[in-house]
Amino acid sequence: MLDLRHLQVLRAIAREGSLAGAARALHYSQPTVTHHLASLESHFSARMVRRGSRGATLTEVGEALLPHADAVLSRVQLAEKEVRDLVEHGTPTLRVGTFPTAGALLLPPAVKSLRGQGVELSLTEGELPALLDGLRSRQLHLSLVFSQPGDRLDLEDDVDVHPLLDDPLLLALPADHPCAARDRVPLAALREEAWIVGTTDWDPCDRLLTWACRQVGYEPLHALRTDDYGVIQGFVAAGVGVALLPRLALGSPRDDIAVRPLDGPPLARRIAVAMLRSTISRSAADLLDALRAQADRITAAWAHETVSPRPDGVSGGA
Fold first, then answer.
1. Burial of 243 (0-12, 13-18, 19+ CB in 10 A)
2. Would you tell me which CATH number, out of the four given (1.20.58.100, 1.10.10.10, 1.20.1250.20, 2.60.40.1120), belongs to the domain 4-86?
3. Cβ contacts of residue 104 below 8 Å, gap of 6+?
4. Among residues of the chain, what percentage have pLDDT more than 90?
């Protein structure tokens, strides 16, 4: 019969590269590691580890078992944490991730409604890669995420993605720019402009910008890279470049910049909730419902406003 210790030993050998290293990592004696490895190999009637003068590596059979061992051990760790939270606090703890602009406008009203139901929340703010890592490692039960429409986030099959809203991308340019007098600005008119973009090439807004510029025959020139929307607006005002800003991140426009929609196909980033299927179902479902309601309110407000305001002081990245 399989024992969790068998899987822990296999994973430790894979990570440490030797039985001695696995023993140190697990605080076992080396004979104990050898015993559990032998039991595992006996269970499957196959060698799991290849030992040599330079250490130990997994065989093909061991490599096939390793991702299942990781999944089982991660699920057990999550179960232990959820049950301990419930025993210690008397209420479930829901671990939620968010990126800054969603944390400012989408999440607080939803959290307020859930806290009134006696649910404990642990909130983590971060950029998208860190949030996705948190979901993969089961450190987060659910997270607000964003992507380019049509993209698939690199998440496992046991994570469901629930769309909330499409966040339009708006053009920010200096208030005295010739195109500021237009109601809508075609990208073709910005061929000679420099663009202020994000720090990473995977950013959905920047990939959409590159795609849209290519449709009208040019590659956007990058003047500056930053993920801080306050910094972006400052450098736009200074005439360093122009930028695409998500509407959630815009806030009340500065007097020295102009914000205009682009002429042509609408560009937007998709905001969604990524949620583990194995999470605390009732609490997570209630938060998802509250987030959907807040997303509907934001979308309705956008339909009646030229620019969506945001609270003062929200100037962070994504």
1. buried
2. 1.10.10.10
3. 248, 310, 311, 314
4. 53
pLDDT tens per residue, range 216-230? 999 999 999 998 888
Contact present, 115 and 121 (Cβ < 8 Å): yes
DSSP three-state, residue 243: strand
Helices 4-16, 19-26: axis angle to 10 degrees equals 120
Collapse the DSSP code of 281 into the 3-class scheme (helix H, G, I; strand E, B; otherwise coil) and give the result.
helix
Hey, what are 208's tokens?
A: 């959409």
Closest CA to 316 of 103, 142, 167: 103
Which residues lie across from 259 on neighbouring strands? 172
- Report the predicted TM-score, pTM, of the whole model to 2 decimal places: 0.71
- Choose the CATH number for 98-318 among 3.40.190.290, 3.40.605.10, 3.30.450.20, 3.90.1200.10: 3.40.190.290
Phi/psi at 201 (nearest 5 deg)? -70, -20
